[in-house]
Amino acid sequence: MSSVKLKNVSKKYDSKVVIDSIDLEIKDKEFVVLVGASGCGKSTILRMIAGLEEITDGDIFIGDKKVNDIPPKDRDIAFVFQSYALYPHMTVRENIAFGLKMRKVPKDEIEKKVKEAAEILNLTEYLDRKPKQLSGGQRQRVALGRAIVRNPKVFLMDEPLSNLDAKLRVQMRSEIKKLHEKLQTTFIYVTHDQTEALTMGDRIVVLDRGVIQQVDTPEKIYNNPSNTFVAGFVGSPQMNFIEAGIEDGFVKFADVKIKLNTPVDCKKVVLGIRPEKMVCCGNIKFRAKVDMYELLGSEKIVYFNIGNSKCSAKLPPDFKIGDDIELSVKEEDIYLFDFETGRRI
Question: What is this structure's pTM?
Fold first, then answer.
């Protein structure tokens, strides 16, 4: 079993709380992505699972074993870093084999494992090269190879693609997913890139300031966000947030009134609307003026104001700055959030 459990885990540096009493269970063979803005605590969680960071409170289990006091080398995990951490004076073969040599694994077994890892990662023809002779993507695959040969219970990956260019990141996302399917072991992956999270994870853990905001599948995270933080963080462009008032059972904004199906115990709410849902065929209509746009080839991201709220929509490319536009949205595509707490209503 290679499940991972965090029970009431906290991390403090002096009086500063970095991780605040989180509970998280990652199933055997699952690919889970920890996502959030820089400084939210996602890398700290990874380092605590690895044993590179001591926990302040709580318990961590790998399989059925509590690992709080077990040193990193005995936790049966492999850590892939953002910086590759390759030895520049060693060949690809020597880099991949290094950890096995330190464990005094027999020479023929090392050679077999290195060969298998090189074949999985398409590195066979590069085994005798030094890291400086490789591209960024090839170096990252060497770092993955060094992890694979150890046959760990759990792979921990800390923003492994952040040093790559955009095209290579897309390619490596696909390769890491295929690797997970081949190896059939548990992957815990940290990123600040919500596109990586949506495309790679079986489940996503959204973090903000050391607190888990939501844990769910990519589809449910995107379509049913639990609060304004999750709704705004996941999705590109981010969700539009429009301040609105409640009056006589109606939500009112920009000369628009929407009948509430259930009573709401507040005078002010925030409406959330995905930019791609602002189209020309909904039943709720409003007008705006184009402030600016970004061309994406077959469409534009058009920016405008609704009241005091800055908004965007994905539209055909025939709009220009200053144009008056009529937009509409279906009632079922509008999310309602509590103005004070940000929680979904």
Answer: 0.90
